[in-house]
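Hi V.,

You were right to ask for the full record rather than a summary. Here it is.
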Amino acid sequence: MTHFEMFGKALWIGSEDYDKHRIFIIRGHFKLGKVENASIRVLGMGIFHCYINGVRVSDDLFLPLDSEYEPRENFPVNEKLSGFHTYVPQYDISPLVREGENTVAIHFGGGRYTFERECRFGYPKAIWRIFGEDSDGEFEVCSSLEDKIAPSFIYEYEIPEEVDSPVERQDLNNANINALGSDFDDSSWESCVAATDVDTDYLFSDCPADRVCQRILPEVIYDDAGKRVYDVGKNLVGYPLFKTKGKRGDTVTVHFSEERLENGELDPKYCHKQEFTCICDGSERQVMPLFSWYGFRYLEITSNAELISVDEIHTDLAVTSHFECDNEILNWLYSAYINTELSNMHTGIPFDCPHIERRGYTGDGQLTCRAAMNLIGAKELYRKWMQDIADGQDKLSGHVQNTAPYTHAGGGPGGFSGAVVEVPWQFYVHYGDSSVLERYYPNMLRYFDYLEAHSETDLVVSDKAGEWCLGDWCAPEGVILPLPFVNTYFFIKYLNRAVRIAQIIGRNEDIPSFEEKIERKKKALLRCYFNYNYEDSCFFGARQGANAFMLDIGLGNKKTYPNMLKYYEKLGEYDTGIFGTEVLTRTLFERGAGDLAVRLMTSEGEHSFSEMKKRGATTVWEYFPGSMRDRSHNHPMFGAVSAFLTEYILGIRAQDGSDTLDRIKIEPMATACVKRASGHVTLEAGRVEVSYNTEGELISFEIEIPEGLEAEFILKGEKHPLKAGKTSFKI
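Predicted structure:
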């Protein structure tokens, strides 16, 4: 939509003095008759809250949804991005407006639009349009140069940019502390000036906003004369609500950490520089951060404040699954992955971590989207994120960015940029919507051209000049697999996806080209990396999932798979990076070695989920314990294998010959080592429940299928058709 279509005659407004009004409050006034109905469309670039007559128009947080808002000069360098979108929230404010005088107040708190270090989009600005019907008929009022502006009581604010972390500082003595109310006198404030329009396509979105999803009462674990440390009970994302007790001029300081020391104090290594402060005005006030979230389990607050609660915040998504079995490590993995993924879903993006970077890394996102779509109701979030990925593609070269929306960051042309193929594909598989394949197919073709242009001797050897280019990432002992090996694997994987996509959307004429590329790339991988010694028949000695990568795209010989099994039977734990862990585990399940896959997932070794659990983790870490590096303790990447809890342990997945989950089979693959399991997933057709229990030589199954879903049960090669409702088996 154009500016006029979305906002009519409303003006973007702001201040001439950016330094003075870096974080501001805008107030506007309007008069109405007796109101029948009223709606508001409103934006503050970046994060904002909006009030009508002193009442917040919504509980939504951290709006607008993050996106590629508008072009930035020469950023990315020497590229021209494909699209620019800004998502506009609209709210029914009929209960908030009144006959006579009304006030709208917009509190702007910064955000990626104005604070991105390398290249901000623009200066802070706001716009609003209220329309509806009153006793005089249809009405419309909107932002104008008559609106007033003044600095906020938030005097410092930062968002993460690789080395920084969230910081927010409030001065409760500021005269504008009450400026969001309806009775505040703004007559001395400056008038707004016209700000530049946003060069964008305005859209509505069904993607949910962030919300307070749970309120928690933490436990005191450390107390001395100057501070208290609290345990929230799990690693989460949110912020504290507290009551100030200090004298006028005192500072309340809150620090956050994912871990604590033995004496109960915060472990500074895992604080990630996160901080919130406020300057007291001598009265008791309830205070919370307004435009920042923090990733933590423990928080420390100075004793001149009384902690009331902690609000857990993430995109308002439902958990649409359940999993429980007789193995506590797998139960922990399910719970920890859900907690981690939700902790990293904010502003319409699947983030990598909630504190250090907060970026929509395409590598992390494409890797975990299968698990997220299995277990969480994230359909509209991924629908929106696919557009972000496409918007960030370079029109000139086909390069897909390592983050979506774009923030300068490292990654790679295979496992990261391939999100332009993998996310639409998984969206189609889970929701049966082939329109996304057709919509993003041209982006996929341009991406393939980019990979060809960055290949030498048919191996993908580089990314954009100057970019930090990875293959796999976060292996415990450091990655040994060469970048061309991993990125060429991904090129072939996505070409295989493209063959099927072309068939689905009626582009069969493209298939010969895809198949020719696949064969060339396969030959190059064999030529450069395969050990043809028959007894070996491995890629890199089967280390770090190398054989699994190649088996997944049809390479190797008769010895390659048995040698991979032998290697991991002996090793007994993961030695793989973020991509290799998923590929290895999936390959084992797909080839019938579900018991070995489960033994790796439940390994008691140092590099394991079990070790995370032993160390008290409630979220999945960025690195396995005992790795060469340890940083964030809230990263969903390794949790990608959680997809297989429902797909292979419960056994709920697409039938052979079906791409999508509108035809399913239930075929558990690890009943020799998982003796009891139960759970459900929620498909487009409805909820599918499976439970089983081993009793001596027999296994009892209870299965429930919704109406209209074609399903079959398979065990030990025997197929049994399933009808809607509950069915029991004892085999």
